[in-house]
Write a structure and sequence with these properties.
- The chain is α+β, with helices and mostly antiparallel strands.
- It has 5 domains: 91 residues, Sandwich (Immunoglobulin-like), CATH 2.60.40.10; 278 residues, 7-stranded beta/alpha barrel (Alpha-Beta Barrel), CATH 3.20.110; 49 residues, no CATH class; 188 residues, no CATH class; 82 residues, Immunoglobulin-like (Sandwich).
- It is built from 15 helices and 53 strands.
- The strands form 12 sheets. The chain has a 9-stranded antiparallel β-sheet. A 6-stranded antiparallel β-sheet has the order 31-30-36-43-42-39, with no helix packed on it. Strands 11-12-14-13-18 form a 5-stranded mixed β-sheet.
- A hairpin with a 6-residue loop joins strand 13 and strand 14.
- Helix 12 packs antiparallel against helix 13, helix 12 packs parallel to helix 14 and helix 13 runs antiparallel to helix 14.
- The radius of gyration is 32 Å and the shape is elongated.
Amino acid sequence: MKKILLLSVFCWLTNSAFSISLSKDTLFTSVTVKPTVAYINYHGEVRRMARLIFNDGKCYTGGRLVVDFNETKEVYEIPVAATGVQNYEIALPGKTIKTPQQLTVVFNNQGQSYTSRAVVTPCKSNWTVYVLPHSHVDIGYTNVQSKVLKLHMDNIDAAIELAKKTQNYPEEARYKWTTEAIWVVDNYLKMSSPEKQQRFWDAVKKGWISLDGAYGNINTSLTDSRQLMEMFAASQRLARAHGIDIHTMFQGDVPGASWGLAAQAEQTGIKYFLSGPNASDRIGRLAQWQDKPFYWLSPSGKQKMLFWQCPPYSIGYGLKGDKIPNFFNVEDPKPFYTGKPSENFLNPYLFDHLQQLESKNFPYDLSILTWAMSDNAPIDPELPDAVQLWNQHYVSPKLVITSVKQFFNDFEKKYAKEIPTYSGDYTEYWTDGVSSGASETAKNRHASEVLKQADAIWAIRNVPNYSRIDFSETWKNMLLFNEHTWGAYNSTDDPDDAKVKSQWSYKQAFALRAEKKSDSLLASSLSPLRPREGYIDVYNTNMWKRTDIVVVPASLSKSGDIVKDLSGRKIPSQRLSSGELVFIATDVPPFGKSTFIINKGRNPQIKNSPTFKNTITNGIYTIVLDNKTGDIKKLIRNNKNYANDSVSLNQYLYMPGDLLKNMESSGTATITYKENGPLVQSLMVRSDAPGTKGLEREIKLISNVDRIEIINTIDKTAVRSKESVHFAFPFSIPGGQVRYNIPWAAVTAESDQLPNSNRNWYTMQRWVDISNANYGLTWSSPDAPLFEIGKIKTANLLGGLQHSPYWVDFTSQSSIIYSWVMNNLWHTNFRADQQGKTTFHYFIQAHDGGYDSFKASQAGIYNHQPLLVTSASTDELSGIVVKGKNIYTEVLKPADDQQGYIAIIVNTSEEPNHASVISDKGKSFQLFESNLMEDKLKRIDQNFTIPGKGVMTIRIENL
């Protein structure tokens, strides 16, 4: 039977950001028939659709098309088209095929015959594709942050109006808006009138505005455990206040995520994670995870979140970008109407995309795409019309404008039993941004530990007027510094541009404010209520009895150098070259304090008289420096040298450009004693170094304290050509395995990583441990989180690295570590240069026996959270004591409502462990299992069990 294919009102042109406009006199030279996975309505029948493509030009004169398929021939008359057409849709004859069939078309045009053949394979006829409208939130990048914020707040208003306008559309085409980052919502509500706020919440409850939990598009591997939890605090408070649930997060642009997210799923309530990463820039092998959803099992195996990495978030801009303004260059961009919503839409992109999924045996019949007009762009006001027209024409794939919540609910409801479960860290790629702002990174990391100690002191001292708002705002500043936008889009091309400078100043201020506010809150927490003149209190904010050095500021030790305990026993002390007074405090109680007296008098200036002036020792370690370079030549403990002869330990390495062959080191060193007393010895190494005005490296030991401290200070010169700075830590631990601390857990490099995650560099929280079965060491840095294993794999990583062969897919175990402290290698976003003094602290602790996760965690906490000293007070302490084997308390704080305390406890071992919370003041506590919102979820006994590698939040209240 012959039928004539009438021209549809849909003349679906080939879409591409790179399409070329063809003049009318450009005639086609051949035709290609391309089967698709789409089905269309054709005269009351549902038919498979193919596309006839005119190559190298357009067809203007029409012609006769013969289609031979499925044992049926049909003839179609293609009419004349004055403007020319590059492709036509063909409704293929016959029933749905179950086996591959050949398709042959012959197009007769002006006496010329053109033939094309293709094989049509069976495909799904019931695809549903969810389309998520959003605007990617970069806090900066495209413009100064104030204008970026205004744009995203304007988008909320525009989205509400468009949602209202489209409420009579078919349900699938009704507009919904995803705000992407709670940062936008937080500011919108603060700046809105009560009436506007009510309008917003009405829209949320109607489903017009969709809220996801994350405060921003954060590099989650950079956030420590507490920050990662706080990343969802604002959204959960908003949800609680307005009677809604937020269980989802959407992360745009950022490639990869911390395994710690899965570890806290029950604590935060965030159980669904949609990732819409960057399309190509510095993403390594991440694309291999696209459209492979899985339940992400936590390290404990007791929690999980559903993770889906969809295609890159930039699809909308890629298809429509040449039809709309370049919003990067528009100061006050507004939603733009092309007047042709069906053009530059998902035809033919979506057909090719779904065909690829089917060729990979994608087991589901629904999927999701995001739809954004670029970074920090207005909404696409034509999307509802485009979706409505699409669904009128296509039976499959059907489009649904969606929210993250709707998509995951629909997907899980249909496929929960078929979704695979995986474990491992999705090691992030973009964390290298922190070393383009090394000084601020160090400040931000330090501020986080200070704020945790301030929380603990407030709880230990039981001081009233705990300011939850002040703490919350400080956490937000830390998170926003860890947000993925480090600089402007033209930061490396035009670093002196006023907007570039403004955007960095705004970004930098997050870290500076966090530092200032955390210091202020700590000072407030330590402020004595009833001072004791001449006395000092030394506080221990950890759950173990602690013996360690105390550093007394000169302002608290003006009376003298003599330190005594309350029994009158004199304690050895030493006045440092900085003017500070130090002594060793013994057995400071857990979550408690010890009190000491500073007396008049001066200690005799006892100095060590070492045989060699390049050597220091403290009874546990002996450190020997190379006389010429100042690098560490020997690191000896128990007659074992942990230094590797192949590379110098603590060597400065400067790489101009990105080639290892150009690597340079520091010049001839001058070695002197900085401290040379009975408690503290340190050698100061000064040298010239490329890329700097000078390099100082201090190596410090404390008498009978099992720890080496290294303090490296770079006085950086501004270099705008590409560069990297490393410090080398080659240890000698044959057969050693590398493990490192991530939020709420630890990872063994390679074996605990998901495939296709980053293996070129790693991001630690508090520590890295390298151990074989017999011995090892724990290495950490409060300031510099990035490190590489075995060799410098960040060489050749210049620019965007799209499909680069330099992304590695396997990490060999090695006891050689490189600390990657500075770089400007990316072609965008990073600062062009850094200058001034930046200090990097490192701590090393060798140990007998193999890896011990608890001891590594304890060492990391000690290195990041020193004993605190303040003027003494007579106030009574709360008396909280947490006990248990192989556990540590990450958080101790007053409850936000000040009706108790919150402790977050981590089990470091594979096995369940018992824990208890008691009082050493004779008080009686009642305990509740709790969560991020500090709810009383379940009453628990004083003694309770934490699952292996588990995390528990406990609410503690007085009886």
